[in-house]
Each structure stands twice: as C-alpha cells, then as structure tokens.
Amino acid sequence: MSNSELSISEQHEIRLEKLEELQEMGINPYPYDFDVTHSSEEILNNPELIKKDDQDAEDAEQVAVAGRIMTRRIMGKSTFFNLQDSEGTIQVYIRRDDVGTETYNTVFKKLTDIGDIVGIKGHVFITGTGETTVYAKEFALLSKTLRPIPVPKEVETEDGETKVYDAFTDKEQRYRQRYVDLIVNPEVRDVFRQRTQMVQHMRNFMNNKGYMEVETPILQPIYGGASAKPFKTHHNALDMDLYLRIANELYLKRLIVGGYDGVYEFSKDFRNEGLSRFHNPEFTQVELYVAYKDYNWMMDFVEALIENVAKELHGTTKVTVGDHEIDFKRPWPRIPMFEAIEKETGKDLYGKDLDELRSAAEELNIELEEGSGKGKIIDEIFGEFVEPKLIQPTFITDYPIEMSPLAKKHREKEGLVERFECICNGKEIANAFSELNDPVDQKERFQEQARLRSEGDEEAMEIDEDFVRALEYGMPPTAGLGIGIDRLAMIMTDSDSIRDVLFFPQMKPEKE
C-alpha cells in the first residue's frame, strides 16, 4: 500500500515507529546544528562551483546544503532527490558506496521520508540531462517529520490530460496551517518576501527625507485617532482598563508638539470589527507626521512614495492586479468628495442637513444603522457608489467635518475639512489631513463625538483631555498620513484577500 493510500493518522504512527528505530540505532533525529555553506540559489548561480565529471571531486570546492526532501527517485544503490531550502530547490545525488551501506539502506531509504529535513555535504556537478546537482558524500538527518506534507502529484489520464492530486489549495487550511502552505507553495513565500521589501523601500524613502522612526504605546488608557471599536483589557497592578490601540495618531502628534519635525511609525493596530477580504482585526499601517506642511504637500509625498515602491518592486510604475493594470505614475487625479458622489448618484449632498441626507440614503436604498449621523450617512453612500469604481490611484479630497474630528477646517469651503483618502483598486489605502492644531476647536470636536456616542454611535471617539492639553502647548501646522500596509501589499503582490498577505490571519475557532 502506498503512502497516499494511508490515512494521516496511520502515516503518523509509521513515522513514530521510524523515529524510535532511529533512536535505537543511536542516531539523534533532532541534532543541534549543521554548518550550511551555500543555499540552493548560491549554488545554481555560481558556475565556478561545478565539476564537469561527477567523480572528479579531489579538487572540487565542497558545499554543505540543508533543506527538506520534496521528491526522490530511488534506483537501487543510488537516488536522485530534490532538496528545498529557503531560496529554492536543488537536485541531490546520493550513492550507497559514498555514504555507507547502513546510512544509505537503513537511514536514508528505510527511515527517511518526504518532508524530512536533511543536511548534505559534497560537490556540485552537471548530470547527463544538464541539471546542476549536489553529489552527496555525507548525509545527515536534521529533523524527522511526523506528519506527511501534501506534495502535489501529477498523473496523466488516458486522454493525455495532466491531473494534479494532493495539492494544498484549500484556502482555510492554508491560512490555518501557514507553515505547510509555505513549504509546498513557493509562490506564497515570494508574496511575503515582496511585502517585506515593500516595507523596507517605504522605510528607506522616509529615512532619506530625514524623518525619525519612533515607537508609541499599544496599550492606551484612551483609544483615539480613528473611528472604530476597540479591544479592551485590564491591567491588574494598576487596576485600570486599557485598550489596544486603534491608531497611533494622537501619540505621534504629541511628538510633533515636543519639537520633532517629522516622525513615523509602522504600527500594529487593532479594531474590534468583522472579517472580510479587506479587514482583519489586527492590521499594520504606517503613520507619518511632518511639521509645517499641509494636505496638498502630503498628496505630492504619497504619489512619490508609492510610485517609488512600485518601481523598486516591479521595475515599472505599472502593476497587474487581477484583471486590471494599475499605473502609479504621477500625477494622480484629485476629486472633491461631494463632486465624486454627485457624479455617480446625481445627488448634490453638500450642505444638506441630517433629514435631507437620510432621505437621499433612502432613495439610494442605503440601509442605515440607528443613530447614524451626517458623516456616517455620507460615508455609506460614498462607499456604496463611488469607492468600488476607483481602480486607478485617486485622491478623494475635502471631506465633511462630521467625518473628520482630527482634521483642520477647510480654508475655503464651509463645513469641510482638509482631508484626502487615496483610493486604489476600489479600496482606501491611505488617509491624510492638514492636522487640526487649534486646541479649542479640537475640544469642541471631541465633545461632538461624545454626543454621537451617547446617541448610539459606538465608533465615535472619546474625549482625550491630555491630547487637548498637548495642543494647548502649541503644535505647528502639520500634515499627517496613514497608509494601510496590508492593503497596499495586496495590490503590490496581486493578492485577492488580506489573508493572503498576513502570515497568520485571524480565523474562527477550528472545528474538532
């Protein structure tokens, strides 16, 4: 009976028996280290390592590689197998006469399985079929696996078609067992490498501007900086409730008050909300605050930053996302929010009171939560009719004051604030303000938020008296920015769900 016909529990028992047999032989199946000298990529990209004659090894440079056995073709006294490390896959050739009868016949052939982690020492040669291969002179078992990895198998049907079996493609399994996903789906590893590179390019861009990376509290006595429900916890020693931050905005602006001209933070933030393709309760964003600038300057900055990221990652400003080609080449369109809404709905909502907005929402078949204020209604209409249609990067500007309690009043338009959101691929990826630095105005905005909370808006902000006090010491004109790292990573890696760019996304409890 083949391994594929055995249940996982049966294979688990068989591998436990192999583990015991190895230990009885005096072999440690989990040794402490192995001196790796080369990765698979370094070997494949270095022709100077290759010896043309596989037996001519006296003066060959020795290599030591380690990784998982992914496939193997046993041919009696010798075997070819593929070894996968963090950089890729390379073929290994192993012979009984080189590594010894017991090592080859018992340890390698009988007690080693697909998925086991092994170490190989030897030299590099080219096979008759032209494949770069490591000729094993020494073999070491580095980690005995007790669960089989789901290695895809290709089978040719009678019709000449190729069918793939045992591929690890179930989305929920992949998210729950990301460690397996990373082993058997190399393209997933590439997605997370690109995400890391994206963050590094953003960090370098801001560092080169002279801005300082900082850290601010995750546990906060008063949550603020956004409209969202928080996660709540309790500090036993101080006997006080604390909240996981929903944003780090108010602390970063305190640092601008303190005298820094530019600060930024890549932060983990937490919002007690539902799960979707674009939402995870724990997410990453970068926030940046620059003194003596406004939202017009920040639009220029965001264009330059993200255009640079696209070029660094892809060598071009154009990125393929699903069926769309998105071009981040500057400049991007800049459209006032109410103009965008009127274009898509035919309704001019600027200056309308609460009853008029409710009536407009009803005519547009928008379902509203009880207690929804003006800002909430406008946001719902925008999210339904405008946002999904904005595929190319677009700045939506000049939001109603009710939606933006931390932004400066518009210098020309009554009832609006100087705020923009960058919408791309139908979702917001960045949000920015000319920051409110008038402490009297700020306190009044907080008080209005408190009123909305009392009327049932659970996402309205609480009053942060210490932040008002900080503003009373004087904050210079400031531009503030938040960019959603997860959503930007989705675009830059052509990923369909936020879970595809999070190593360990939040999941419902696993069923027994």
UniProtKB/TrEMBL annotation:
Gene3D superfamilies: Bira Bifunctional Protein, Domain 2, Nucleic acid-binding proteins. Residues 192-509 form the Aminoacyl-transfer RNA synthetases class-II family profile domain. Its EC number is 6.1.1.6. It is an enzyme of class 6 (ligase). InterPro entries: Aa-tRNA-synt_II (IPR004364), aa-tRNA-synth_II (IPR006195), aa-tRNA-synth_II/BPL/LPL (IPR045864), Lys-tRNA-ligase_II (IPR002313), Lys-tRNA-ligase_II_bac/euk (IPR034762), Lys-tRNA-ligase_II_N (IPR044136), Lys-tRNA-synth_II_C (IPR018149), NA-bd_OB-fold (IPR012340). Its cofactor is Mg(2+). Mg(2+) 2 binds at residue 428. Mg(2+) 1 binds at residues 421, 428. GO terms for molecular function: ATP binding; lysine-tRNA ligase activity; magnesium ion binding; tRNA binding. Homodimer. This is Lysine--tRNA ligase.
